[in-house]
Design goal:
- It contains 11 helices and 35 strands.
- It binds uridine-diphosphate-N-acetylglucosamine (UD1) and calcium ion.
- Uridine-diphosphate-N-acetylglucosamine binds next to strand 1, helix 3 and strand 10.
- Uridine-diphosphate-N-acetylglucosamine (UD1) binds next to strand 1, helix 3 and strand 10.
- It catalyses: alpha-D-glucosamine 1-phosphate + acetyl-CoA = N-acetyl-alpha-D-glucosamine 1-phosphate + CoA + H(+); N-acetyl-alpha-D-glucosamine 1-phosphate + UTP + H(+) = UDP-N-acetyl-alpha-D-glucosamine + diphosphate.
- Its cofactor is Mg(2+).
- It holds the Pfam family NTP_transf_3.
């Protein structure tokens, strides 16, 4: 049920200079979702009456990400006055005048924060008569964070930023997590008092805590049990550490749901991926985007699947696949490259050193070796010979190749699109198929072979080849087999 007495403000206006990146900090992904997307998803799950996101730096790119992750959010543009306090001050203007509930402020750069932690914070705040409750943590390294300064009696007194802290204050290792719950009127009043008189020349939200205390209000800090929950991301070292933590949580959750993950350290699973019981992930595997793997499938080693569907019992080895569908019981790889639009039917095969793109390969059909199949449709139970290329591009336009069902094409064929091969047709080895092949026909384009008898002994006398040739001609030759099947030169495996 929507909590109309709760407003959430997400701070996403900062520049994120410590990332040293052209990409705004909050758009750097972990687990396949931008940093800010994690915070927005958590905020969304609380079902608050009001959600406001504050933007400024690269605002259009941020707004796009925010609207895709949390469509109902109100966007507020921060003005030129810098600081988290200013961001909140301006966000409050977007709330209805008669709103008198609680305001949850969350920094946009704490992606591992979960809903359970926020729910605890909200309950704790509402069960105590305090003007503000904040989350604190005890990380291994407090460098860079605002420090929580408590009174001798242990009550929260104020927060001091690293850059403004004395040596004694810096020695404190309890830090401000950047997650706060305030009564709206107390927050408004205190923010009006905040100045930019500090080392960074910013309006700090953190100053509100000391101001509330001095105005005689109670404030409290709730330590979280695991500091990783609230670790802020400011640089790329923190980004990779958070991504590894998130991945470890996801791998463990899938293991407990029945997925075998042989090597968690080299297996990466995005947050939106879905795996079924009895899937096996071998080392070096990345299950990215909205990839779905059905039960009993084995993926890896060294495989990257992006937005790809894998059917039950399929086997995918040393493969890179994007926006593809791999049917149940199908076999892919090793060393296959499936580009967008590849759809492999049940029991089908895309084998070794094969690249496919926009290719629909029917049930039981196989492209086993060394091929490029693009803009192509293949029926059921067909076999494409080793080293086959669909020439789909005339330099200006892409054209389609159609191969029917129960077709057997020879090794090293080139299909010059647009072209089609009818059901049950064959083609010889080395055929260049430029014209449509009718159903049941054998297509051949290679000129007949001519043997110049005795050429080596005449033209290369004294060589080892010539000696071998004369020794061979001394013994009676075995008749060469020459039937249609040999002429077709099919490779079938
Ligand atoms: C902030 C806190 C610090 C705390 C830490 C927790 C302040 C002054 N300091 O420091 O006490 O320990 O988070 O991770 O709040 N932002 C805006 N507008 C701005 C500046 C920042 O919206 O003008 C946003 C940023 O996009 C970011 C968040 O606020 O999502 C925090 O900003 P950041 O610069 O990372 O603050 P810290 O220095 O980490
Ligand atoms: Ca930060």
């Amino acid at each position: 049920m929507t909590d109309d007495r709760l407003a959430i403000i997400i701070l996403a206006a900062g520049q994120g200079t410590r990332m040293k990146s052209a990409l705004p900090k909050l758009l750097h992904p972990l687990g396949g979702v931008p940093i800010v997307g994690h915070v927005l998803a958590t905020a969304r799950s609380l079902d608050a009456g009001h959600v406001i996101a504050v933007v400024r730096h690269e605002r259009d790119r941020l707004v796009e990400a925010i609207e895709s992750e949390l469509p109902g959010a109100t966007i507020v543009d921060q003005d030129e006055v810098p600081g988290t306090g200013r961001a909140v001050e301006q966000a409050l203007l977007a709330l209805p005048d008669d709103f008198d509930g609680d305001v949850l402020v969350v920094n946009g750069d704490v992606p591992l924060l979960n809903a359970a932690t926020l729910t605890t914070l909200i309950e704790r705040h509402r069960n105590h008569d305090v003007a503000a409750t904040i989350l604190s943590a005890m990380p291994d390294d407090a460098t860079g964070y605002g420090r929580i300064i408590r009174t001798e009696a242990g009550a929260l007194d104020y927060i001091v930023e690293q850059k403004d802290a004395t040596d004694a204050e810096r020695a404190v290792n309890e830090i401000n997590a950047g997650v706060y719950l305030f009564g709206v009127s107390q927050l408004r009043d205190a923010l009006a008092e905040v100045t930019t008189d500090n080392a960074q020349g910013e309006k700090y939200l953190t100053d509100v805590i000391g101001l509330l205390r001095r105005a005689g209000s109670e404030v409290s800090a709730l330590p979280v049990s695991d500091s990783w929950l609230v670790e802020g991301i400011n640089d790329r070292a923190q980004l990779s550490a958070a991504a590894a933590k998130l991945n470890a949580l996801l791998v463990r959750a899938w293991q407990l749901a029945g997925v075998t993950v042989q090597d968690p350290a080299t297996t990466w699973i995005d947050i939106k991926a879905r795996l079924h019981a009895d899937v096996t992930l071998l080392p070096g595997t990345q299950i990215l985007g909205a990839t779905v793997v059905e039960s009993g499938a084995t993926i890896g080693p060294d495989t990257t699947l992006i937005d790809t569907e894998v059917g039950a019992g399929a086997r995918v080895r040393r493969t890179d696949a994007t926006l593809s569908v791999i049917g149940a019981g199908a076999e892919v790889g090793p060393f296959a490259y499936l580009r967008p639009g590849t759809v492999l039917g049940e029991r089908g095969k895309i084998g070794t050193f094969v690249e496919t793109k926009n290719a629909q390969i029917g049930e039981g059909s196989k492209v086993p070796h060394l091929s490029y199949i693009g803009d192509t449709e293949i029926g059921v139970e067909s076999n494409v010979g080793a080293g086959t290329i669909t020439s789909n591009y005339d330099g200006v336009h892409k054209h389609r190749t159609t191969i029917g069902s129960h077709v057997r094409t020879g090794a090293h064929n080139t299909l010059v699109a647009p072209v089609s091969v009818g059901d049950g047709a064959y083609s010889g080895a080395g055929t260049v198929i430029r014209k449509d092949v009718p159903a049941g026909a054998l297509a051949l384009t290679v000129a007949q072979q001519r043997n110049v008898e005795g050429w080596v002994e005449q033209k290369r006398p004294g060589t080892a080849a010539a000696t071998a040739a004369s020794a061979a001609s001394a013994t009676p030759a075995v008749d060469a087999v020459s039937d249609d099947a040999a002429a077709a030169g099919n490779v079938d495996s």
